[in-house]
């Protein structure tokens, strides 16, 4: 963390909350960054109800940080963990059959939809999705994250959102909010230890509901974390939501790459543009001896990207902090350091390319 950001945190430690503690001690500060003297961060209230009373504190925080040398301007936003304890549980029947034939399920207020896919499970597709969402939000984009991995939803854990989603009118679902990102997951609609035992049509119905019945509002980009493989959810998304493009995540290992090719072939068949590939877990840098080990090999994804004529968008190392912060619901891209910078570069590249 830079010295200026450390001083900003120290300054915020001085600002007492009316009900005790500070924004720092109560872990309410998210996505803090400084760019050419302009400091930006998000205060995340535990619920929408609490957030309603926090505007004076937001304004006070914005004023207080201007006292720090190196901060010339400050923008502090207020968000809430929607669906806190007092929010009503959704009355929707999730998991019905899809409706409307081939009609589009693309929300009109969403500018870009990025599908994050992989051929094989466990290669880091959800990790990339959550970190990319956070990095885009840090870059000032209005971001949504839809966890479409219906059988194995991991975004509630990775984004640190335990609340159940709410639907005040029983028709429209209010998305949850974490780290400046609107988030919706089938995991936020179900009881934690209930298995989802739906088949094709119900999966497609659930995707349709999460696209079109969630109040996404105006978004620059909606990141869709797909299930692994080439099944009904992927095909429905491509045919009915017309994603702006797909990003395929793979490890450099042969077996993962073989499956990634199938995913790539599916997107080509469905005429969804492939924006590029991401190599995840490419290199391990030992923090003790400094040695670098290619645990899953190296370079395979770059070769595949070249063969297809699409960019290699990022090569991300196998990294303990990535795993720990994902498990703790605080994506590594929230902080600083080499991996956070790699995600910031990836976000920047997608924004510059006009796809986010
Ligand atoms: N670069 C990385 N370094 C270290 N651990 C990682 C990295 N990327 C992902 N992981 C870890 O690997 C595990 C699997 O990652 P993740 O859930 O993102 O994969 P996935 O492709 O979405 O899997 P699935 O398709 O089965 O849901 C997680 O524990 C995650 O924290």
TrEMBL record:
Pfam families: FeS_assembly_P, ParA. It comes from the Bacteria. Coiled coil: none annotated. GO terms for molecular function: ATP binding. InterPro entries: FSCA_dom_sf (IPR034904), MIP18-like (IPR002744), Mrp-like_CS (IPR000808), Mrp/NBP35_ATP-bd (IPR019591), NUBPL-like (IPR044304), P-loop_NTPase (IPR027417), YlxH/NBP35 (IPR033756). Keywords: ATP-binding, Hydrolase, Iron, Iron-sulfur, Metal-binding, Nucleotide-binding. ATP binds at residues 119-126. SUPFAM superfamilies: Fe-S cluster assembly (FSCA) domain-like, P-loop containing nucleoside triphosphate hydrolases. Residues 6-76 form the MIP18 family-like domain. CDD domains: Mrp_NBP35. Homodimer. Binds and transfers iron-sulfur (Fe-S) clusters to target apoproteins. Can hydrolyze ATP. Belongs to the Mrp/NBP35 ATP-binding proteins family. This is Iron-sulfur cluster carrier protein. It comes from Roseovarius rhodophyticola.
